[in-house]
Amino acid sequence: MFTGRPLTFILLRFRKKRKNKAERERGDVEIICLDSHADGSTYDCNDMTRVVRKTPFKHHNTYCASHTATPIQQSNTDASFALRLPPEIVGAIMTNLVQDIFFSDIHKTECLWIKVGHICRYWRQIALECPNVWSYIDTRRTALVKELVRRSNSAPLIVYVWLQAHRTVPDVLAINQALGEMHRIRELSIIGDMMDFHFPCIRLPFKAPQLKTLMLTSLERSNAPMKLLETSTTCLRNLFLYHTTIPPEPTLLRGLQDLTIYALNSPPSHVSKLLSILELCPELVEFNFSGLFDGFRHSAAEMRVVTLPRLRTIRLAVGVNAVIFLLNCLTVPIDVALSISGLYDPQSPLGQSIPPTFLITYDSLEVNISEVLQANAKVSVPTTGDTSGWEGCTKEFEMEVRSIARGSVTCFDLLPVILNCLLPRIRHLELNNEPTYSDTVSAGMWLSLLTSLHSVVCLSISFSRWSRATAFMDALSASKETQQLLCPRMRTLILQRVNFTGAWNTELSQLGAFLERRSVSPARITTLDISLCSGMFPDAVQIQIRPFVENLLL
User: Fold this and answer.
1) What is the distance between the alpha carbons of residues 320 and 553, in angstroms, rounded to a whole number?
2) Is residue 134 assigned to a domain?
3) What does the pLDDT average to over 289-310?
4) In the prediction, which pLDDT does 181 show?
5) Whether residue 397 has pLDDT greater than 50
6) How many whole angstroms separate alpha carbon 353 and alpha carbon 156?
7) Predicted confidence band at 27 (pLDDT cuts at 50, 70, 90)?
8) b/e per residue, 518-539, with b = 16+ CB within 10 A?
9) Structural domain includes residue 173
10) How many CB atoms lie within 10 A of CB 188?
11) CB of 502 closer than 8 Å to CB of 538
12) Which domain of life is it from (predicted)?
């Protein structure tokens, strides 16, 4: 028998909503974090309970559960094993659970401190002696902030400050109590309607020697507070700005490793201004920017080149032409992972092609052709012959582009332009024609892409219509002005999602004629994989196709 005492607070996460009344009344919750004010009662450790219903409690911003509870079956072996764990491990587990819930979704209120529940004295004492368990503070829980500050002792704090439009005296007191511990705050998130900090009785954070992560979220566009920018900290490593603007501040940006700017509600920014900010971040490892299509304005006189020697990841969601212009102003390592998305204007005076520095190491490319052009490039390590796939990936390039000149410019036109530094080096290419893609694809459109594939060894392609497959084979059989076949190094062809319907003899005849033309050239296809196609008769395939390839996969 193990003894325990009732706890004043237990952090519970209410799970999914129940569909029927019985399930809603049963409403299971999960014990996450412990708080304790003992009154001397004792309980059996093996008779652990889970709460089944929550009702409002008299204390402000606090809930309690009804006394109805169902026992959780737990064997003596399980309980004794848990109680043999060292306090360091139990404390770390408690801290990790609290952290997972705290960061799950800051805008939800599913995490409630409620006055209910019991636990054995051993775990209770560990919780009380582990300051990190109490180091997560949300100022919306006004009645708890002071107690959490006390129980966290000298542990580094992670604080969410909410500047609500309609503030009460407890709200202001809770914010003051949290920001009063600025000397030990490690991560600070400030969320409000306007980020101007014109709130009475709120103590502004001037010194933050331990601050490593700062997130400013404005529910309406505004400027980041200048007084916060004057924070005397040299430890800041991560800065996240949502709907806020920030002027260049050397003391704040110099040591940054992660910079995220989400500016969909902000006016367009000049590329020169963004370059000025990046110049102040020589240690930057990851950079994320999201904005409107015209979120970048450029200057033809902009000739600066910013060097970021430690950059490893860059994600840009804004006008693709402006992104390309910005990339041409950066000097980065060749192993940077790049992700871009947005609208592309073929007539834009800005850059048209992604610079080679960001594409030079890739040898595998997957492209989804639909109303939106999606491309994903990777580095692969060859395994067996020419059919190696995506093994050994070390970095990735992702692109999602939509042309603003719909109809006159297709995905087949965009791909060779935007990726003209990548396509000649690609060895493994996968093309997926989405069934929803309605544009007519002719042999001439295929030519603009196939003429760039000098090094492709393995080509995997899917067709939603046989007419597109015919156009592809006609283009691949055509000769350049130099009388050389397109894709001269291609040895493996993988056809996917082709449905050989009614006129299967005609379709197989066309496929066989294409393979025959390639077989009498130096660019013979040695392996054909049609195992993912449907509607075929094996005997007919063997007769019409087998003579022209060495390996046939059905």
Assistant:
1) 40
2) no
3) 75
4) 92
5) yes
6) 46
7) very low
8) beeeebbbbbbbbeebeebeee
9) no
10) 24
11) no
12) Eukaryota
Q: Which domain holds residue 545?
A: 359-554
Domains in the chain, number: 2
**Are the C-beta atoms of residues 171 and 132 closer than 8 Å to each other?**
no
Closest by Cα among 222, 288, 214 to 253: 214
247 inside domain: no
Q: What is the pTM of this model?
A: 0.76
In angstroms and rounded to an integer, the radius of gyration of the C-alpha atoms of the chain is 31
Long-range contacts from 352-356, C-beta under 8 angstroms, 24+ separation: 352/321, 352/324, 352/417, 352/418, 353/324, 353/417, 353/418, 353/419, 353/420, 353/421, 354/324, 354/327, 354/418, 354/419, 354/421, 354/422, 355/324, 355/327, 355/328, 355/421, 356/421
Q: Strands 9-14 and 111-114: what pairing? A: antiparallel
Report the chain's terminal Cα–Cα distance, integer Å. 66
Contact 235, 211 (CB under 8 A): yes
- Exposed, middle or buried, 9 (CB in 10 Å: 0-12/13-18/19+)? buried
Instruction: Please say which residue of 32, 67, 102 terminates a domain.
Output: 102
Where residue 371 sits, what CATH number does that domain have? 3.80.10
Contact (Cβ atoms closer than 8 angstroms) between residue 478 and residue 509: no
Answer for the pair 447, 412: CB distance below 8 angstroms, yes or no: no
Q: Which DSSP helix (H) or strand (E) runs through 402?
A: strand 396-403
Burial 321-338 (b: 16+ CB within 10 A, else e): bbbbbbbebbebeeebbb
* Region 226-254 average pLDDT: 71
Gap between the Cα atoms of 487 and 168, Å rounded: 70
In a domain, 474, yes or no: yes
| pLDDT over threshold 70, residue 249 | no
Residue 510: what pLDDT?
Answer: 87
- In angstroms, rounded to a whole number, what is the distance separating the alpha carbons of residues 71 and 28? 12
Residue with tokens 């400027």: 223
d(CA 254, CA 272): 18
Q: Tokens in use for 211? A: 């601050």
Structure tokens belonging to residue 100: 């997972």
pLDDT in tens, 192-211: 776 555 444 455 556 788 88
